[in-house]
Amino acid sequence: MDRYRHPALKQLKEQQVRFAPVDKRLEQVNRAEELLAEIDPAKKYPYQLVCFRVLEFRPDSHTGLLLDGADLVHDLRVFIEDLSASTRLDAVAAGEPVVTVDELSRQLNVSTKTITRWRNRGLVSRRFVIGGRTRVGFLKSSIDRFVRENDDRVERGARFSQLNDLEREEIIRRARRMVQFCPSARPAEIIRRVARKVGRSTETIRYTIKNYDGENPTRAVFGNTVGPLGPSEKAAIYQAHRRAVSPDVLARRFSKTKTTVYRVINEMRARHILDQPLEYTFNPHFDEPNADEVILAAPLWESEPVRPAAATDPEVAAAVPPYLSDMYETPLLTKEQEVYLFRKMNYLKYKAGQLRERLDPRTARSTQLDEIERLQKEALSVKNQIIRANLRLVVSIAKRHIGSLNSFDELVSDGNMSLIRAVEKFDYARGNKFSTYASWAIMKNFARSIPDEHQKRDRFVTGHDEMFEAAPDTRSSEHAYERQVLRLRSSIAKILERLDERERSIIISRFGLDEGTEPQTLEEVGHELGVTKERVRQLEVRAMDKLRQFADEEHIELPEEE
Q1: Angle at 547 between CA 543 and CA 550, to 5 degrees
Q2: In total, how many domains does the chain have?
Q3: CB 342 within 8 A of CB 351
Q4: Is it the case that residue 313 has pLDDT exceeding 90?
Q5: Contact by Cβ (8 Å): 203, 113
Q6: What's the domain range around 409?
Q7: CA-CA distance, 428 to 417, in Å (whole number)?
Q8: Which of 112, 198, 360, 543 is the most buried (most CB within 10 A)?
Q9: Contacts for 426 with CB less than 8 Å, ≥ 6 apart
């Protein structure tokens, strides 16, 4: 079935798939089918009226738009099928009997191709989950309505397709003789020859031989050559194709036509694509008409001279193994570059997802599959570019979490996985800094995977993780951050000497300032000093006031309290 003739109906479908609950979508499918039965192809209909009949409200978009009746009939049928597919409704839960294409062709005594033609002439089809996968089906009420309104057409189709016993025997006899005299001929060629001889369609001949072979397996004309391929055979064809075995060889090996082999390869490619997870962050700009031109256009900074990578700070690089030094040759991303890359990556995934929604493995074409794979490959390339520019962030955080129970290499490997997940989940439209979001994701993962970190996180749970993730974008190099930390530690150690012994002990214990120690609770510090935790709190407040005073005198900028 052709796709939408008018973009307004396509946009309406996409909005409902994305935002409407499943039960609402099912109601909209039923109302769309009711409206379809009333449309006169010779008239024009306001888009607002169509929306009101289907959605029960009038949207603000496309006011004044008139839809041609013939185009509306076509697009409503596509709308019904696409929207029903998005609900993933099991056929047994449809509320009335559901009939597949093959079952309906047997009921009405016509070919499956005739059923396909009737779908384009008013037979309303939906998509249901049948046998674990989404397939085209027809509600009994939809079939009854079509038969009632097209009685002559249905009768002519059945009369044309009906064969008597003598005609069936003649078809089987001719096919068997051709197989005997032309053993190298393919089944499709034999079927075409028989069709020309007896004056019937190739579909009728194929269907007749298939039924005969199924009922008489020991006397079958083609054996299993015209029967459907099983999952294992399809998988074998696809794997052989990936090993560069030609379709001609596969057709002879499996006694199928080359067309069938191509169809199987495309079906398996489509199923492989649909089995792969595809996550992206949607943005309303993706639906704008000029989205391709705006989002995929080459950015201005690509035409500028390549910005040299920041020189590796000696203090920071000292603990980095030689095999990781190459990552410091990749420049850090500016805010403009970061937004561009994240937007492009998610838009490419969005486009691939839109194509995947319309992908039916049984009718998949190579052009469809090539385009989806191209978009996914390009999105992966952009994703890898973002990851490479942020690998040094993982190293920087991993160095601060090395302990007796974990190695640096393990931390880097674990942190890289967290970075990859962060790239997939980050919403660039919020205006936040990706390094802040990724740092929090990496540290949260370390807190789960490093035993020593569990206790530390439990003591400092703030309940404001979202506030941390939404930190303002004040961009700075990870090297500069580490230098700042080193200078701050040195300055704090200097002014700590001006506190008395008990105050200094409390501050060091509470904030874990001794190398290799963890921050302690008020209760733990009080137990060590033999005082209550309330007394420790009072002494801590007094000591912090003194430190701020000393810091002002020494012109040291201490972090503000949250």
Answers
A1: 135
A2: 4
A3: no
A4: no
A5: yes
A6: 284-469
A7: 20
A8: 543
A9: 281, 342, 434, 437, 438
